[in-house]
Amino acid sequence: MKKVIFAAMAVAGALAAAPTKADEPIFGYIYTTDLLPKGKTEVEQWATLRDARSQGIFHLLQTRTEVSYGASDNFQLSGYINLAHTRVSGNVPDGSTAPPEVFADYNVPSEGSWSRNRFESASVEAIYRFASPYTSPLGAAVYLEPSVGPRTRELETRLILQKNFLDDRLVFAFNTTIGQEKRYLHGDPDADPDTIDYRDHWDKETDVNFGFAGSYRFASNWSVAAELQNEREWAGFNPFKAENRTNVAWYAGPTLHYAGQHFFATFTTLFQLHGAKDYANPSDESFVVHGISNADDFEKYRYRLKLGYYF
Amino acid sequence: MSRRSTALAAFTALAALTGGVHATEYLTPAQAQAQMFPSQALTQDFRQLTPEQIAAIRKASGESPLSPELKAWRAQDGGWFIIDEVVGKHEFITYAVSLDASGAVRDVEILDYREAYGQQVSDARWRSQFVGKRAGESLKLGTDIQNISGATLSSKHVTDGVRRLLATYATVLAAR
């Protein structure tokens, strides 16, 4: 234990002695149009704990290890590795056990506790900014992120808008995200043999998220923010077919951000708000309990910590 | 302690551990004074801006002073030396402006810069664009002052700051 404390103190001392510096991200979930300048590199480590359902035990820890590079002043490229750990038990409204979405390709006993680690996916991210909030009335950028995992393929596109006030200390950002994903699922022997669910198959889903956030830099290096996220899911790849809707959920919560000259840390807590919808199941089998969605990609609380270092 | 409280405490401790800010100090105020007004004695003439003066500066420049205290020194030849701050990405950028006796910009110098990026605002060639500018003239980034790609926020705020100081000169110092 003494060695651990000594090592922690040594790392802390080294960090404190180094020239401490400053940069993004000011939000946990919402993106801004701020990018790395040309030729600059940054490493980022995320840890997201998605925790608690209306019943049972539900823990999902997702990590992201990311390297970003400013290809130009308006174009940033990133690559990252996503890992996940889960522990679930009796987390479905009917009392059974089911895995979170990122483990949906596993056969999980419907009773008792289940736990697993996995390599989730590798992703590439490209962000192009076509209007800077510092020189244009509205900052705007587009984002593209393909991900490939052992049994998952995903393409996420995002529109980012940003408006600054008060000498750029007050920042508002709006994101629209469309994520289309495929997961290879095992056949369900209890399903109707005439349906696709009976056989092993690639399950398709579309996620559409709307995010809005505001941040205020209340002191040098420190900012506080609030984030609101509306998440909508559709079965299949067509988000314009109302009959394909499956879930809607709302999240909101505060964010605290610190940035030195080269180091930043961002911590967000999101709470699922009441008002979730389950369109996929009849009301007596609904995954919504007291307004909270318990579907496989939703939980009550989300805690996200981002740490980053700019070179 | 709850999980949320523990995480928040850890976050704060981590930030505190890394919170010692080390600025890049290009010039001290004394060095800037000596460089901008060589062999001239400067007389400190700090002012406390009144709400009416702040409103007039805001109206003339579009920018509000960050502080009601104006740190100005009067030179023997009638010029002025002013130290001011503008908002950087995460810290304040401290800079100095010297004006000649007629109120035209003689020089702009960055004194302290505390950001990871955007140090290009200290480049002499970029700063030289301000020389000769006067209160009432157009002084905007992108049209009158060239933007520095990759340092947009810093170059915008320094430009806005100089425009505000020229309005401050016209409102407060030239009106004495």
The SS-based structural class of chain B is alpha+beta
Strand segment count of chain A: 14
What can be said about the biggest beta sheet of chain B? 7 strands, antiparallel
Output the helix-strand order of chain B. Answer: HEHEEHEEEEHH
Number of DSSP helical runs of chain A: 1
- Note the beta-strand portion of chain B: 15-25%
- Overall morphology of chain B: globular
Q: Percentage of helical residues of chain B? A: 25-40%
The rounded distance between the terminal residues' Cα atoms of chain B is 61 Å
Strand count, sense and closure of the main sheet of chain A? 12 strands, antiparallel, barrel
Q: Tell me the strand percentage band of chain A.
A: over 45%
Q: In terms of per-residue confidence, which ranges of chain A show pLDDT below 50 for 5 or more consecutive residues? A: 1-23
C-alpha-based Rg of chain B, rounded: 18 Å
Query: What structural class do you assign from the helix and strand content of chain A?
Result: mainly beta
